[in-house]
Write a structure and sequence with these properties.
The protein is α+β, with helices and mostly antiparallel strands and 142 residues long. The chain has helices spanning 12-21, 31-38, 84-98, 115-121; strands at 2-6, 46-51, 54-63, 68-75, 104-105. It binds coenzyme A. Residues 22, 24, 73-75, 80-86, 108, 112, 114-115, 117-118, 121 line the site of coenzyme A. InterPro entries: Acyl_CoA_acyltransferase, Bact_Acetyltransf, GNAT_dom.
């Protein structure tokens, strides 16, 4: 049985390996620092899907008081197409709605545009907005 639960510290290596396999680790983000930072802000919204004691999916969810966000959505390649990605997004939506969050936003890297069609099947639409960012703390992925 697969269950979705909050992240525990001893999931770290499995989670980073899953993110690397899923192509989500980029040189400008250190995944270990990303995990450490998330554990200081709404750690209960950092979701892990576990199947027979193995980490098979993740979703890093947050609510900033105006919008909800999902980062690091990933499913183990061997388990894709079984509804787990959808289940992680539904759990993210449920937890955010429970907190009074009116809208969920997420960003898709331009190099990963193929996944936009998948998000559309879940009811997500591109917003008429350009995403801007400014790095405040430099990281380098190990
Ligand atoms: C995106 C991702 C999380 C989806 O996880 P998943 O567990 O395979 O998703 P689900 O099983 O819930 O959904 C699969 C369904 O979507 C469909 N689907 C998959 N890719 C699709 C696409 N590009 N466009 C439209 N539908 C797609 C499948 O056919 C399947 O449909 P079915 O249930 O009718 O058979 C997974 O592919 C992944 O980890 N990708 C790499 C990391 C990534 O890109 N994350 C998003 C960062 S923004």
């Amino acid at each position: 049985m697969t269950r979705i639960r909050p992240f525990h510290g001893d999931d770290t290596e499995a989670v980073v390996a899953l993110w690397r396999d899923a192509g989500l680790v980029v040189p400008w983000n250190d995944p270990y620092r990303d995990i450490e930072r998330k554990l200081t802000v709404q750690p209960e919204l950092f979701l892990v899907a576990e199947h027979e004691a193995s980490v098979v999916g993740t979703a890093m969810v947050g609510y900033d008081g105006h919008r909800g966000w999902v980062n690091y959505l990933a499913v183990d390649e061997a388990r894709r197409g079984t509804g787990l990605g959808r289940a992680l997004m539904h759990e993210a939506e449920r937890l955010l709605a429970e907190r009074g969050c009116p809208k969920l936003n997420l960003q898709v890297r331009s190099t990963n545009a193929g996944v936009i069609e998948w998000y559309r099947t879940l009811g997500y639409e591109p917003d008429d907005a350009v995403s801007l960012g400014k790095r405040l703390i430099p990281d380098t992925a190990p």
